[in-house]
Write a structure and sequence with these properties.
- 14% of the residues lie in helices and 34% in strands.
- The strands form 9 sheets. Strands 31-32-35-34-36-37-38-39 form an 8-stranded mixed beta sheet, with helices on both faces. Strands 14, 15, 16, 17 and 18 form a 5-stranded antiparallel beta sheet that branches. A 4-stranded antiparallel beta sheet has the order 2-3-4-5, with no helix packed on it.
- Helix 4 packs across helix 5 (515-526).
- The chain is globular.
- The mean pLDDT is 93.
């Protein structure tokens, strides 16, 4: 096929607004029983409602939950682990009323439904059945009193009319709890906990306690702390290998790796299973993350990240430690879950798995298959009406940092089967600063990247200091340096690419959401490398964030900036709001009106400050949207408005398919 030269930004693209906004579902939380695979689908066409879907052998996938239910939770605001399946029983949190619901006999023609916990201003997450099926353990977040919500571990009896409808509290006192895990014999409960000002990726404790009963209600005996009480370590994802052995992830070595804990002999401490200079684990932003799967014969399947790249490893026992070998499983989002397998062999040929695959060259999909074999797709997040020649693949980029260290990024070149960059033009580039800031740029296929590359933009996705996947030391580079090192890294990355001749150094934009929005605005204020910026629900005033944000992140800034309010002068100095007089380039703001993490006033006050200095800017607010956009209408308008904004700044006219009256951006100085 002959490619036609056409100005960058104006290329007609197969990645249409309808495809990127309305025909793409968000897949997550794959789990399995012996005869079924389950996952969650968030559907923009249904106003972002999340549905639980099931697939059984020989049947088409079907919706388990009805249109009047939203399988999600807002515990910690970010939620996660909103459902759990045990045999033919299913429990889930319904975001529409915060109730916990139980479905029994889900594999039959007449499943039974009832609410097992409901209370105004109570939220539940991190659900876990006990082996007997008589109790559901959960993290409960109580918003009934003034001040910060109180978080506890609770037991929800599954028999009718037992212990009330709110759950009996098992343990309280810590600021946060997560990941209740019941031993196979039902006699022990393990969990992780942490307190302000720690975040779960800085310092947690691994605890265990005997499960007792008080009449018909479950209670706990005296808890013991197995790890995390003497050193600062991030311990996450506890799982029971047997009745006396816990496996958990710790970063005590500088990398999140797997450790074994013998609860019958706690003086042995943590035993490393397979030391690696790679991360088996990820920041605990949401409940229910799964970085490893315990397999028959003592083997462990683990998902590792090294320098931003993901790889699946099979860990095989070799005496008291394990050996690690790569296993071909595509590009899983979380560790594959075993459906069926032979316990008498170490070979993986007969083992069947399910996972959420996120390749670089196709839309994400829930799949099932065997290691090294082509998987079978159960559900794709989107059907791509184009081929490989329209997809831009990530290239690893290393670049020098101001302090002499080395930075990391993924570079995506403009890619379209029908169009190419004119000979007298170099493409504009968008630098992307991810959120968190403790998150990472991923190599997985994303419409947030392909939307731009298919229209003639280059994209540089930066894993700046503080990102995950590079060890604890890289995460800690941002301690006390947020708004400094992340900004410097993005500037250095942009300057590096400008020097390669691959992009137009006069047409570089920077975009970012949430924490990345602060990086965007601070980058515009401290460098002339960027010609435009886009902040999606981004932080503009660190002082307001410290005072107004939700409990989970209320003290996050203590480590990123400094203790509040003692370090107020630093908060002011790092806040883009007080750098507004140094910004000389146009800015677009996109904001949800229901955002409780970064409230709308953050964007509004920044726009007022910029307009006072006659800087062209625009703010678009979306009713019903929180921290991240969910509905089809919002996502569509956000994509088209941002493209129109770049067209005005960089001097191109978007293709006819991308021009609509409601997406025109009115830049007001």
């Amino acid at each position: 096929m002959t490619q036609h030269a056409r100005p960058c930004g104006s290329w007609p693209s197969p990645v249409t607004a309808d495809l990127a906004a309305g025909k793409t579902i968000t897949l997550s939380s794959v789990s399995a029983t012996e005869n079924a695979i389950f996952w969650l689908e968030r559907r923009p066409v249904d106003c972002g409602r999340t549905t639980l879907v099931c697939s059984r052998a020989g049947e088409r996938p079907y919706d388990v939950t009805s249109p009047g239910m939203d399988v999600a939770t807002k515990v910690h605001e970010y939620g996660g682990k909103a459902y759990v399946v045990q045999g033919d029983n299913l429990a889930f949190s319904n975001h529409l009323d915060d109730a916990v619901c139980l479905l029994t006999a889900i594999g039959s023609s007449s499943p039974q439904f009832r609410r097992i916990a409901a209370g105004e201003d109570l939220r539940y997450a991190s659900l876990a059945f006990d082996p007997s099926g008589r109790v559901l353990f959960a993290v409960r977040e109580d918003h009934r009193d003034e001040g910060e919500p109180q978080t506890t571990l609770v037991a929800l009896p599954l028999a009718p009319d037992c212990c009330g409808g709110e759950g009996n509290v098992l343990v309280r006192g810590a600021d946060f709890y997560s990941t209740p895990a019941v031993s196979p014999d039902g006699l022990l409960l393990a969990w992780i906990e942490w307190d302000h000002p720690a975040m779960p990726w800085t310092s947690t404790r691994l605890c265990v306690a005997p499960i007792l009963s008080d009449g018909e209600c479950v209670i706990l005996g005296t808890p013991r702390i197995l790890a995390g009480n003497e050193i600062n370590e991030s311990i996450i994802e506890p799982q029971w290998a047997d009745n006396g052995t816990l496996i958990a992830i710790s970063d005590r070595s500088g990398w999140w790796n797997l450790y074994r804990f013998d609860v019958t002999r706690p003086t042995l401490g943590a035993e490393p299973l397979c030391p690696l200079s790679a991360e088996i684990g990820q920041p605990h932003w949401v409940f229910g993350q799964s970085s490893y799967t315990l397999l028959p014969n003592g083997r462990i399947l683990a998902l590792s990240v090294h320098e931003g790249r993901t790889q699946t490893l099979m860990l095989t026992p070799k005496g008291s430690t394990f050996s690690a070998e790569p296993v071909a499983f595509g590009q899983p989002d979380q560790c594959p879950v075993l459906i069926t397998g032979q316990s008498s062999t170490n070979r993986t040929a007969d083992e069947l798995y399910a996972w959420l695959d996120q390749p670089a060259d196709n839309a994400s999909a829930v799949v099932t298959g065997r290691a090294g074999a082509t998987p079978r797709i159960l559900r794709s997040s989107a059907t791509l009406p184009f081929g490989p020649r329209d997809i831009s693949l990530p290239q690893n980029i290393r670049f020098p940092l101001p302090d002499g260290d080395e930075g990391y990024a993924f570079f995506y070149a403009p890619t379209n089967a029908q169009y190419t960059v004119p000979q007298n033009e170099r493409p504009p580039m968008i630098v992307t600063a991810h959120g968190g800031p403790t998150a990472r740029a991923s190599e997985a296929f994303s419409f947030k990247i392909q939307w731009w590359t298919s229209r003639g933009f280059a994209v540089l996705d930066v894993n700046y200091s503080g990102s995950t996947g590079f060890g604890r030391a890289w995460r800690e580079r941002l301690d006390g340096e947020w708004g400094v090192r992340d900004v410097a890294d993005c500037i250095a990355a942009a300057r590096h690419m400008a020097g390669t001749g691959m992009i137009d150094p006069e047409r570089i934009a920077i975009r970012g959401s949430s924490a990345g929005g602060l990086t965007v605005l601070a980058g515009l204020a401290t460098s002339d490398i960027f010609a435009a910026g886009v902040s999606l629900y981004g932080v503009t005033d660190l002082r307001a964030l410290a005072q107004e944000t939700h409990k989970f992140e209320a003290r996050y800034l203590d480590s990123l900036v400094g203790p509040w309010p003692e370090a107020e002068s630093i908060y002011r100095e790092r806040s883009p709001l007080f750098m507004a007089d140094r910004i000389r380039t146009p800015v677009l703001f996109l904001q949800g009106l229901d955002d409780r993490i970064v409230p709308p006033d953050q964007a509004r006050t920044m726009v007022i400050a910029l307009r006072k200095n006659h800087i062209p800017c625009a703010l678009y607010e979306f009713p019903g949207e929180g921290h991240g956009f969910r509905s089809e209408t919002t996502i569509r308008r956000a994509f088209l408005s941002e493209l129109d904004f770049y067209g005005q700044v960089f001097g191109f006219t978007p293709a006819a398919q991308d021009r609509t009256p409601e997406s025109h951006v009115h830049l007001e100085p």
